[in-house]
Structure formats: structure tokens, C-alpha cells
Design goal:
4 copies of one chain form a homotetramer. By secondary structure, chain A is α+β, with helices and mostly antiparallel strands. Helices cover 25% and strands 43% of the residues of chain A. Chain A contains 6 helices and 10 strands; from the N terminus they run ββαβαβββαβαβααββ. In chain A, strands 1, 2, 3, 4, 5, 6, 7, 8, 9 and 10 form a 10-stranded mixed sheet that branches. In chain A, strand 4 and strand 5 form a beta hairpin. In chain A, helix 1 packs antiparallel against helix 2. At the A-D interface, strand 1, strand 2, helix 3, helix 6 and strand 10 of A face strand 1, strand 2, helix 3, helix 6 and strand 10 of D.
């Protein structure tokens, strides 16, 4: 049967990335020594030489299928990329997984535990023999407005906020999903806990009131916290407060090359 | 050219609705004597006789196109449905438009005006000569938790909430989009205003603190408010508070047949 | 500590459903004798007496937490609802889980297997001692247009389509997720298989070309297929073809009370 | 009333961007001499000096409000950014508008006209007195698979695809929304037209069959087409085919610095 993808191409344009996107698959994610089943959306691509018309996309699906029941960590992503480079006879491969990851959180007074979901992104690239990794997280928490608190006789507007970070590492990331989430949560007016009994609700309400922060405060405190991570090459941060008094958000972003 | 849609069908199944969905078009919406350009997502369907294989969907797009520059109100939807019934030789037609609608709001102290966006739905059906209408709205506002306020030494958690209502009328709706939005907003801990100066922020912060409401309180107060609307046959309400202290929502719903 | 939720309410309005929504949690789903880890979005609500101001939402989160590591099937949902009714001293409870579920599919010629993701919904209600169940599925497949094929000298437009069904049962559903998915897929121009080698691609291309179907054909054939399910009380079907030649969809729907 | 935002900050971190996001507003967009009302989602931010705690976000909303009824073109975005820099005493400002834009398209045989919606993005930045602009578009069209066509005895799988481009210019963009859309559409297997009569459906079906293209073909042809645009500094392209035979997409991307 003719292999149309393998036909020559004379437009003279090497393609940076071609492959599959929107692939939904179950995986086992390994983080900090624990293994958790997740459902990931995957983008998996390779470079294509200027002389070739198309890549063989079904091979990318086959490779993903091989890792269905083996734990995925950054070293696994490296092996997946090496398989792609070999099976598709190319020089560069890229993978991105987006999934929800669950972390156990303990209520501050009652000590009851529950599961917090964070949006997590793992990215790996292997270009000309060099691997690079990125770890992305979107962490929800509470912010309470310092201005509203200061000018009002009672109360202060507060809201659900989310801080999204993307960290770039030369080698394998030196932080866990759980550790990075805690680092970010600890910059908030108050962390979010799914299960709160009344004594816990009193605690987090007062904690947030006593720790008012603008979106700019959160951003600066996360910048300072991220700078301390070993092996970090660069990071980007986006903070968004879903203002309870508006139908739009307060927003701040910051990018930085670290080392 | 052969008309495949017009082929006979012998499965003996009359189809309740067939047509087009996800159609994105600009329209002019008329509400309370004002005309506003909107961008709507449209579902437009007709009944199909058991003896026919398919409907002629391009005619539905042609009909929508005829109304592109004429104001859309409930009486227009009735005319659109009559055109569908005639052009497609059927006995029933249905249309649903979803769009963002902008309402001018005034800040409580500074008096500055700004535009609030609400999600609006217009539905009309014409079955065996009888027209029925539905008006749907999703209105954002602020809620402040009575429990959090009562048990805490300071502050109270509050958040952005949304109340979605769907009202069914026998004839044309007796309320405007603006009027129904205001009716719902006035049941909140505080209405949302996009543009607030500092004196306004103090006002809405204190107003919400002094008017704490559970999701159940909002629901009940909206029930009472809707019951007073003339000509209403039935309504459904869904209230959702995007809790600032959780990553999930507090939720309540209620359906009622009125008259 | 004062229990504000437990305060009396004198508005005279019993609330049909109040509780939590948008709760994201991992569960184990049991279907057809197999157990699969999923990530579900949950809505979990109870009825509230007209004399009570609010429900105790943290108890609903506690109940969900109890079932985190036990397989969820319809009988489990019944037990979850009974726990809610007991812990919240009410007469009705409702739960809805939405999640992606993975099914193994075999390529038609090469025999290679891969995983297809379908969107699945489980609903259960327990009102005045009577339980009712609903099973919902959104199944993707290929449709090829009979009109386009007939009138064109070569080719025919085809596209990804999705059929969403919601089945209501008096007792526990008599179909599995896998079985119901196969029943729907077999009404398509061709089923979707994530991993196709070239010989498979030839097969599905020709299969779809030789089995052209309008959205109305799919709908009618699914109606006939669903009518044969034992114990079914009613069903609703929505079919949507993401037309390759338009930026909108062809759409059809049908509701039916069976027994 | 105390100005908490204006308090000094001693963390030593200048903030790159802070402001508002998710603002939904109606605007008038001017493109190629025509003016069209749209509903935009806006992100509007400024730089914040390391010595200041927060910015005054309500002023950003006020500025947007000033341009509600005046046509928005790239020169308007420049004026909006200058207003932000002046009113917020800063050195850099950024704005991004995302909206649906409607373009009239003519059916190839019947000549009937209808409106195609494309997703459009306008970005402008003013940093240290220098303005830069970006124009982004997501254009839907049809692709037909060359491999499927070649290996199959009849038919070929085809699908809805989308090509998203982001073009960066030093000065004001030299292309219109309409012109750039047409440039991209003309690289497809067939352009999409919302309203097609039967003779048009025959035409586009055969046109696509006679012009099969892989996602890589589309990408390369768009690369060649974009390189010819005057004044272009750089561009990025993402092409995604919503494969009719899979539940995932074929995907390719390419970035290039032009001049």
C-alpha cells in the first residue's frame, strides 16, 4: 500500500512540530514517591524534515499506548521522547500532558482530610539530544482585598483566586507537584480546603481577614518563593482573582530567567 | 439534481426536532424599547414527518439570514418560526438564541456608569399553531455567608455567584431583560457593578456584610420575586455560589408551575 | 458555636435541591465486572424542609469522601443517597457524576487495540423511599453525508459526530457503559478507533462511504436500538454532526417514554 | 480615604503586568474601512514600579469605557495604551481583545451570501515609548486526507479544521482581518461557507476531494503565504484537523522570525 506521508516534499520548509493533539488517555503519574491514576489530555509531536511530506501519526498513538500502565515521571517522558525520535526517524520530539491531580489537605482545626484538585501540566522536549522539562500548576486559593478591608467599617471582599505557574528546568524538576502547590498556597490570604467543619470555617475566615493581599502581593510573594527553587532556569506566573464585587478579574503576570 | 433528503423513509419514526445548531450570527435584540447588537449562538429546528428522510437545513440558514438586520423580539421569533414551518412544510418549529447582553449599571456612591454583561437565552416554539416563549438569564452578583460572618471574630467569606432562571410564558414575556436582571440582583447580598471607585467599594463591601445570604436564602427570595411576574406559566431557578473558601460551589435549584 | 444553617425559616418555601456542585473527585467506577479509576465532577444535593434555613454542605463532602476507594455502581449511588438522607435528616437526595470513561477498541483489519474516551453521566435520585437511575453517554463516531455522496462525482463530506443519550430506569440500568456505547456506535456511518494503521484507515474510509447517513438517519436508528433495552422507562437522544463543510452543526433530537 | 494601593512596597520586585482580565465589553471594530459591532473579552494591564504596592484597576475600566462608541483599530489601541500610561503614571501598558468577527462569504455556484465567524485577537503593547502590534486569527476550513484518498477504493476522510495564526508587526498591521482570513482559507482543501445550496455542496465536495492536504501541507502553504506579508516581524501558526476517523486531532505548529 502506498505510503503517501513518505512522499518527498519540495517546498523547502522543515516543520518544527507535527503530531497529535487532544488525545485523552489514562496514565499513572508518579510524584514524590506516590502513584496516582489520572486522565490526561496529550499533545505529542515531532520535527519533520523538509524533504518529507508528512509524519506517521499512528506511531505516536502506539508509543503512548506502551506507557499506559507504567508510572509517568519526568524520566519516563524522556524515554517516550526517545522512542518517538527513533520510531519516526527524526531529531526532535515534544510532549505535553495536562491533567487534574489530587492532593490531600487537612482542615486547620478539625484535622479532617479531603482532596484538593489542581490542574497540572508536564512538558518535555528532546531536541538534538538535549532534554528540557517544564512543570506547570494552577493552584486555587482565597484572596482578601486589603483596600476593601481598610476602607470599610466591617467585612472585606474576598474571592476564589488561581495562581498558574510554569517552571522550566534544564534537568528533571527538583520540586514535586505537592511541594510546589504548598509553596504557592502559602502565599495566599488563605489556602483552600475542600472539607471544612464550622470551627475550620471560622479559622480560615479570620486567617484571610488577617492576611489581606492584592493580586500584586500574591504575585510578588510567589516570585520570591520560586526564586529559591534549585535548578530552575526560568519561570512565568499568572495570578487571577475572580473578584466577588465585579464580573471581571484582577490579573498580574511576571516572567523571569533565573540562572 | 437528486433530492436525497426528500426520499421516503419507512422506519415509522416522526422526528421531534431536526435542524442546525452552533450557528453563530450577529443580531439586533430589542428589549424595553432599546436595540442592541449581539452575537448569538442559535439552534433552529423543525419537526420532520415520519415519511421523509431528512430536512433541508440550508433553508433554515437562509431564514436566519433574512432577520440579520431587523430587530429580534419575541414577536420576531414567532415570525421566524412561521417562516420555517412554511418553507419546510412542517407542523412545528423551534428556535433558541444564546447571547451576552449588556446593561448599564450605576455605582452606588460615585454614580459612575459601566456595562454589566449577563448571559441571556430566548426560546420560542410553534407547535400545531400555538406559540410558547421562554426567557432565560444568568445574573452574576455577590453573596456573603451568614454562618462565616456569625462565627468569625472578623470578616466573612464572600464570593461571586450566579443565578440562572428560565421563565416560561404562554404569550410574549411580560418582563424585559433589564427588569428581570434587576429583580434577581436585588435578592443578592450585593449587586455587581463593573466600575467601582473607592467610595463605592466601601459601600458594596459594607452592604454585603450587612446582608448575609446563604444560597438557599437567595433561591427562596428569587422564588418569591418570580411568583409576582404576570403571565408566567412556570419557572426554574439554579443558584451557584463560587465559594471563596472551597474549590467547589454551593448550589440550589427549584422548579415551579405557577398558573 | 451557633448553627446558623439550623435557624428556622418562615418564607414557607421547601427547597427541592440544595447542596454542592462542581466537586471534582477521583472515584472507582464499576461497569460490566471491571473497575476503572475516573475523575468525576459531582453534583450532590438534598431536599430542604420549608422550616429550615440551610443545609449542612460539609456533610455531603464527608459522605463523598467515604466512597473514595470503594467501587461506584448504581447500587453504590443508592447507598450514598441513603447516607445523605440520614445524615441530613431529609426526605430526598440526588447525585450526578460526570466523567470520562475509557473503552478498549480494536482496529478492524490490523486488530491493534487502543482506548476510546466517552463522556459518561450517572444520575440517581431517592425521593420518599423510591430510587430512580439515569445513565448518560456521549459517543463520538463518523458520519458521511448521503446527499453529498449522491450528487458529487467523487468523494463525500464526512465528519466527527457525537450522539448523546440519557436513559431513565426504574431500577438499576440493564445495560453497561460498554454495551450502550457499542449499541450507539453500530448506528454510525463508521465507529471511531483511536489507533488505525493504513489498512484500517482504508477500511473505515470505505465503510463510511458505503454507509452514508444523515443526522436524521442516525437519530432514527438509535431510537430503534434504544427501544429494545429492557427495563427502560424513557430516553432522550441528541445527535450533532460537526459538518466539515460548515462552521455549524447538523442537529436532531428525540425524547420518548417507553414503558 | 486611605489609598492602600499607593502604599510603598519594599520587596524590590517591579511587576511586568498588572490590571484587569476577563472584562466583557461591546466595541466597534474598524477593519478595511468597515465598522462592525463585536463583543470582546479584554485583558488590559500596566507595568507597576517596584516601589508601589498596587495599581488602580478602576481607572483601566474607565479608560475602556471611554472607547465604547468609537471605532477600534490599531491606532485606537495605541491611544488607549497612552491613556493608561498617563492615568496610571507608568512606563508600559498592554491590551488584548478577543472577539468573534463576521465575514461575508459567497457560495461558489449559487452565489448566495452568508456570514462566516472567525475568532480574532488584537494585541498592542507600548513599552518605553515604542508600540508593537499583533493580529491573531483562527480560521475554520475543510481538509481532506491525501492518504485516505489514495489508499481507498472510494471516498476519503475529511473534517473541519482550524488554522490559528498570530502575526507580530513593528508598526500597524498591513493586512485586514478579511484579507488575512482569505489568505489562510485559500490554503485549505476547501473553504467553509455557512450557506450552501445543493449545487454548492457538490462543488465543495469535489473541490476538497481534488485538493487533498495533510495538516503538514496546510502548515507549509500557510508559512509560504504569510512570508509575503509586508512589514511582518514574526509569526506563529497552529493547524489542527478534527479528524473524522479519530477522537483526537492531527496537529502541526511553526514559528518564524521574518525580518
Amino acid at each position: 500500500m502506498i505510503d503517501v506521508q513518505n512522499q518527498p516534499d519540495n517546498r523547502g520548509i522543515p516543520i518544527q512540530q507535527t503530531g497529535v493533539s487532544g488525545v485523552c488517555l489514562p496514565f499513572l503519574i508518579e510524584d514524590g514517591g506516590k502513584i496516582q491514576p489520572v486522565q490526561a489530555h496529550v499533545r505529542f509531536t515531532v520535527a519533520l524534515d523538509e524533504n518529507l511530506r508528512g509524519t506517521h501519526m499512528s506511531r505516536l498513538i502506539e508509543i503512548l499506548d506502551d506507557w499506559r500502565e507504567k508510572p509517568i515521571a519526568f524520566r519516563t517522558l524522556d524515554a517516550i521522547l526517545r522512542a518517538a525520535i527513533e520510531k519516526l526517524s527524526t531529531t526532535a520530539a515534544y510532549i505535553r500532558l495536562d491533567f487534574k491531580y489530587f492532593l490531600e489537605r487537612r482542615a486547620p482545626v478539625s484535622g479532617r482530610t479531603s482532596l484538593l484538585d489542581v490542574d497540572c501540566t508536564l512538558v518535555a522536549s528532546l531536541v538534538d539530544g538535549r532534554t528540557a522539562f517544564q512543570l506547570g500548576l494552577s493552584v486555587p486559593f482565597t484572596t482578601l482585598c486589603p483596600c476593601s478591608r481598610e476602607i470599610s467599617d466591617c467585612g472585606a471582599h474576598n474571592q476564589r483566586s488561581v495562581c498558574s505557574v510554569l517552571l522550566s528546568f534544564g534537568g528533571a524538576p527538583t520540586v514535586t507537584i505537592d511541594g510546589l502547590t504548598k509553596l504557592i498556597e502559602s502565599q495566599a490570604s488563605s489556602a483552600i480546603v475542600p472539607l471544612l467543619k464550622r470551627e475550620d470555617e471560622k479559622y480560615v475566615t479570620e486567617a484571610a481577614y488577617n492576611n489581606p493581599k492584592f493580586v500584586e502581593d500574591i504575585l510578588r510573594d510567589v516570585v520570591i518563593a520560586l526564586r529559591s527553587i534549585k535548578g530552575l532556569k526560568s519561570f512565568s506566573i499568572e495570578c487571577e482573582n475572580c473578584e466577588s464585587i465585579h464580573n471581571h478579574n484582577a490579573f498580574a503576570l511576571h516572567d523571569e530567567i533565573v540562572g
